[in-house]
## 1
Amino acid sequence: TASHILIDTRNIKDEEGLNQAKEKIEKLKEELDNGADFEKLAKKNSDCPSAKKGGGLGVIVRGQMVEEFEEAAFNTEVNGISEPVKTQF
C-alpha cells in the first residue's frame, strides 16, 4: 500500500510560486522526519482527493502509477517515507 501528499504545481506559472511550493514541500518533509503524523499532514496539506483518507492510495502494483512515484514507492522500506518526488502531477 502507499500514501502520498500531493502539492499540485501544474498551474503555477512564476518562479516565486514554484519556490513557495518547494518551501512547503521541504517543510512538510522536515515535519515528517521529526515524527509528525503523516495522515494529519496529508489531510491538511494534500491537493489530492486522497487527502480525505490521510493520503492513502491503497494497494498499488507496478505499472499502475507514474514511473517516478512507483520508483520511490517500491524502493522505500515498509512504513518509510521517501524523499519528495516530482511527477507530472
Note: The helical segments are 15-33, 38-45, 67-74.
## 2
Amino acid sequence: MDLKEWSSDDVTIKIDYDKCIGHSDCVDVCPSEVYELERSKAVPVNIIQCVECCACVEACPEEAIDHSACD
C-alpha cells in the first residue's frame, strides 16, 4: 500500500496512491479547494483550508481518501 499522509493542527488526510487514479472528484467537490491533482494523484495542498465536510471522502469512487473528521 502506497499511503501518503498530510496533517494540519486539526485534520489528517491519508490517500492510498495505489487506489487513487486521478478521477479528480475530490478536487471538484471540495468547497475549500483543498485538493489539486499532481501527476494524476490527489494532493491536499491547502489542508489548512479544510472545513471537514467529508465531501472528498464521499466523492472518491476508489475509496482512496481517509479523513480524520470522517471516521
Note: Strands lie at 3-7, 12-16, 36-38, 41-43, 65-67.
## 3
Amino acid sequence: MWIQDLRESCERNFDRRAEGQLEVEEIRNKWRKAHSEGEIEESLLDGLERRSELLIEARDSEWSELLDDEDFWKAGWGSKVEE
C-alpha cells in the first residue's frame, strides 16, 4: 500500500519534480509515524526510505528515470542480499 501510494503521488507530479518531492516528504512523515506506532515493519520502512532518498535527491532527468523504472517500484528493490 505505501509503495503504491508513493508511486501514485510521484506519477501525479511526473512533470513537476519539486512538487513531487514535497509530496514524497509528506508521505515519508506518515510512514515514519506508522512505523513508530508499530504499523510498518522495519524491512518495509527500509525499502521506503531507500526509495524516498533517491526521489528527494533526484534532478529532473533522474526523477523521470526513477518514475519510469518498473524495478524501482517492485517489492524488495535495493535490499541487501547476504552472500
Note: Helices lie at 2-12, 17-36, 42-57, 60-68.
